[in-house]
Amino acid sequence: MSKKIIVLIDLDDTMTYLTRAWCTYLNQRYGTEVSENDVTSWNICDYFPDLTEIQVFEPLHKDSFWQYVEPLENASEYISKIISEGFEVYICTASFIDTIKTKFELVIERYFPFISWNQVIITKNKQLVKGDILIDDGIHNLERGTYKKILMSAPHNQHYDAELNGMTRVNTWEEAYNAIHFYASKILREDKNNESN
C-alpha cells in the first residue's frame, strides 16, 4: 500500500457487544426483561422507564461490568488482518474517562491484544479526528465527518438510510473488512488523480 490508510474504529457496539451486556446487567439487577434487540433508538433510558438515568448508566462506571462485555463475531480476526495488511488502525471511542483504563485491560487487551494504548483516541467529537475511514454504530459520529463512513448495523440504527446519507451499512465484520478495502481503493485512486492534475 503506497499510502497508509488511517482506519478509525468505534469500540462499543462496533467492536464489542456493549448493549447486550448492558441489558443483561440491568435485567439481572432490577428484574427487567429488555433485550438488545428491543433498543431501537439511541437513548437506552427509554427502554428502562422504571429506572433513573443514574441507575441505567451505573454499569458503565463500574470496573467489574467490563469483564462481561464480549467482542463482535470475527472483529478481532478482521481488525488484526487489516493491521497486518498495512492499514493504520485506531480505536476512536467516547468512553468514560473514569473506566477507560479498566476497559482497556478487560476488553481491549483481552480480545484485541494487538492494539496498544498509542492506538486509542478518546473523544466525544469524532468529526475532529483526522482519518480516512470511520466504522461506527453511532449515526451522529458519522454524519458531518470528512472520512469515508461505514455504519455498523445495530438495533438502534436499523431504520436509518445509510446509503442516502453517504454511508455503507455493514452487518458483519467480514462486510466491514470488504468495505474498508473498497474505500481504500477509492482513496488511493482519488490521490493518484489529484497528483496527476
Overview of the molecule:
Strand 4 (133-136), helix 5 and strand 5 (148-152) form a beta-alpha-beta unit. The protein has helices at residues 18-30, 53-57, 75-84, 100-111, 139-142, 173-196; strands spanning 6-9, 88-93, 120-122, 133-136, 148-152, 167-170. A six-stranded parallel β-sheet has the order 3-2-1-4-5-6. The mean pLDDT is 95. The protein is α/β, with parallel strands linked by helices and 197 residues long.
User: What is the 3D shape?
Assistant: globular
Mean pLDDT score: 95
Strand order of the largest sheet: 3-2-1-4-5-6
Overall structural class, as computed from helix and strand content, comes to alpha/beta
Largest sheet: 6 strands, parallel
- Rg over CA atoms: 17 Å
- The H-and-E topology, N to C, reads as EHHHEHEEHEEH
* Number of alpha- plus pi-helical segments: 6
The share of residues in helices is 25-40%
**Count of distinct strands:** 6
Strands, helices and their partners?
Elements lengths: L5 E4 L8 H13 L22 H5 L17 H10 L3 E6 L6 H12 L8 E3 L10 E4 L2 H4 L5 E5 L14 E4 L2 H24 L1
Parallel strand pairs: 1-2, 1-4, 2-3, 4-5, 5-6
Structural descriptors:
alpha/beta; globular
Short characterization:
The chain has helices at 18-30, 53-57, 75-84, 100-111, 139-142, 173-196; strands at residues 6-9, 88-93, 120-122, 133-136, 148-152, 167-170.
